[in-house]
Amino acid sequence: MTVRLQATTLVAGSAAAETLVLSEPLSFWGGLDSATGRIIDQWHPQKNEVMSGRILVMRAGRGSSSGSSVLAEALRRGTGPAGIVLLARDAIVTVGAMVAAELYGKACPVVLASEADWTAVTGAASLSIDAQDEAATIEI
Amino acid sequence: MPVALSSFDRSLLSGEQGAAAAFAMRLLVRFAEAVGAERFTDIEAAHIDGCLYLGQVSLDFVEHLVRLGGRVRVPTTLNVGSVDLIHPELFLGSDEVGRGGARLMQAHEELGCVPTFTCAPYQTIFRPCFGAQIAWAESNAIVFANSVLGARTNRYGDFIDLCCALTGRAPYYGLHIGENRRARVLVEVESLPEEWAEAGLTCVAVGHAIGRRCGDRVPAITGLPASTNEDDLKALGAVAASAGAVALFHAVGLTPEAPTIEAAFQGRVPEEVIRLAAADLLETVRKLSTVPDGTPLTAVSLGTPHFSLAEFEGLMPLIDGARPAIDVYINTHRAVLEELHRRGWEERLREAGVTLVIDTCTYVTAVMRDLSGAVMTNSGKWAYYAPGNIGVDVAFGSLADCVASARAGKVVRL
């Protein structure tokens, strides 16, 4: 049965893919190899996981603002995530995805889920996101 | 909640102020929503950290704005680039970074930015006034502008710094707002190591400690030496912003928003009190070195953030005499270089075996000729980043220790 959850659009677009649910926030700067889409932060529990083509689910962003460039560069190269679901607003992630959309037309929707839905979102093996300017939905 | 837009903001978005400004404003509105700002404010100046080549996207972004006819709306300074355009022969990196880096610097000039190429724009004629609303990037410049000058900026970075410059607007949140600038943590320096004659080492040690222990909370520091000068505060802020996310500190009796402890805390009570004694400061400084005394050196690197004219004035009496046994690099910027030239010091420094690096910095790009051994520095920031960035071992010490070690070719302490 499909469950449809209301969410907030940070960056518009739509995507459907399997998820990569991070147990801790990731800094893209120093944490993501834009050439491969691999997590390279030595201290991150999901080091070596690849986010390419998956929907990245993480509670919040972290780290240097240079993370925006790294995310945008990964999306340019096609190694970045298909979409991102956050629980806390994050400027670094938003700006990186916006720049890739504006410069390269590569949409990586970024949406904000609600606290009440977080258990369902993090438990899903795959998700689809439909993020319009006015509102977004997440389907599990 | 949507961001409130002024009529000028709407005119920017509509394209009336040009296609590049419209593009920049669209990004700024999304950014403002993401950080929870309620409105925008005018800014007097911007400082852009976009000249380091981080990949094709760095160049694509700026070239896009150039094609759209973009022009900055406020005086805008530039941070270091990947190459020294004054001494291009110093660059030892790949063709991609060399060419892309030089083009990136030039493209920013085409947008109307001033080619300062320095991490210390506060040492130039673009130094902001007390209370000025600005949008600055580069962590040490941000903390200096907020703390030492009392100007007001958040930690801007990638893309957004340039969007603020192209629109003359910044989201009104965080440290733009007076009440958010109050101190949260009281840092009491209780005693100083007797062997430290100058304030420099104390400031690096305190900066490192507040970076690690305060995160992004504003600290107010008491007990710094009375001789603490502007370059000491520069070093303190730079290492604090490297080891943590510090964007503003108050030094009671030294910085403009902290004439008293009460003023720094805006009448409120500290959330936490951190006490630092001489032994803590000695231990912090000791840990900045990754090699023991006596280790052979391949180079000495000074000037991170960029060496000021006052720092050169302190250095000049030390350089006469025996030449260094190893490479000595000093990072600085064009305005200081011009003054060194005028005073005849550029020639004296060269004769004394010093390589001046302009427009860039030895830890962010390939300039140093020999990275096979350890490098000594008097910069807490350089000591923090260089092992990861360029893979060298580091010895940290005072300026006088660095000069003596350059002559000895190994780490010595005076």
In percent, how much strand structure appears in the residues of chain B?
5-15%
Amino- and carboxy-terminal Cα gap of chain B: 60 Å
Calculate Rg of chain A over CA atoms: 13 Å
CATH superfamily of chain A: Phosphohistidine domain
DSSP summary, beta strand count of chain B: 14
Beta-strand proportion of chain A: 25-35%
CATH T-level fold name of the largest domain in chain B:
Aconitase, domain 3
**How many distinct folded domains of chain A?**
1
**Gyration radius of chain B, in Å:** 21 Å
At the first level of CATH, the class of the largest domain in chain B is: Alpha Beta
Shape of chain B: globular
Spatial arrangement of strands, main beta sheet of chain B = 12-11-10-13-14
Nearest-integer average pLDDT of chain A:
93
**Helix/strand order of chain A, N-terminal first:** EEEEEHEHEHEE
Largest sheet entry of chain A: 7 strands, mixed, barrel
Tell me the number of helical segments of chain B per DSSP (H or I, 4 or more residues long).
15
Q: How many domain modules of chain B? A: 3
Structural class of chain B: alpha/beta
Strand neighbour order, sheet with most strands of chain A: 1-7-6-5-2-8-9
**CATH-defined architecture of chain A:** 3-Layer(bba) Sandwich
Structure write-up:
- The complex is a heterodimer of chains A (140) and B (414).
- Chain A has one domain (4-139): Phosphohistidine domain (Glucose Oxidase, domain 1).
- Helices cover 22% and strands 30% of the residues of chain A.
- Chain A is built from 3 helices and 9 strands; from the N terminus they run E-E-E-E-E-H-E-H-E-H-E-E.
- Chain A has helices at 67-77, 91-104, 118-123; strands at residues 4-11, 13-21, 32-33, 38-39, 55-58, 83-86, 110-112, 126-131, 136-139.
- Chain A has a 7-stranded mixed β-barrel with strand order 1-7-6-5-2-8-9. A two-stranded antiparallel ribbon of chain A has the order 3-4.
- In chain A, helix 1 runs parallel beside helix 2 (91-104).
- The N and C termini of chain A lie close together (8 Å).
- Chain B folds into 3 domains: 7-177, Aconitase, domain 3 (2-Layer Sandwich), CATH 3.30.499; 182-286, 3-Layer(aba) Sandwich (Rossmann fold), CATH 3.40.50; 289-408, Aconitase, domain 3 (2-Layer Sandwich), CATH 3.30.499.
- Chain B is 39% helix and 14% strand.
- Chain B contains 15 helices and 14 strands.
- Chain B has helices at 7-14, 19-35, 56-67, 95-110, 139-149, 160-167, 200-214, 230-243, 261-264, 278-287, 309-319, 334-342, 345-351, 380-390, 399-408; strands at residues 40-42, 45-48, 76-78, 134-136, 169-171, 185-189, 219-222, 250-251, 272-276, 297-302, 327-332, 354-358, 374-377, 394-396.
- Chain B has a 5-stranded parallel β-sheet, with helices on both faces. Chain B has a 4-stranded parallel β-sheet with strand order 8-7-6-9.
- In chain B, helix 7 links the parallel strand 6 and strand 7.
- In chain B, helix 5 crosses helix 8 (230-243).
- Chain B is globular.
- Chain B starts with 6 loop residues before the first helix and ends in a 6-residue tail after the last helix.
- The model of chain B has no long low-confidence stretch (mean pLDDT 96).
- The chains are: A alpha/beta (140), B alpha/beta (414).
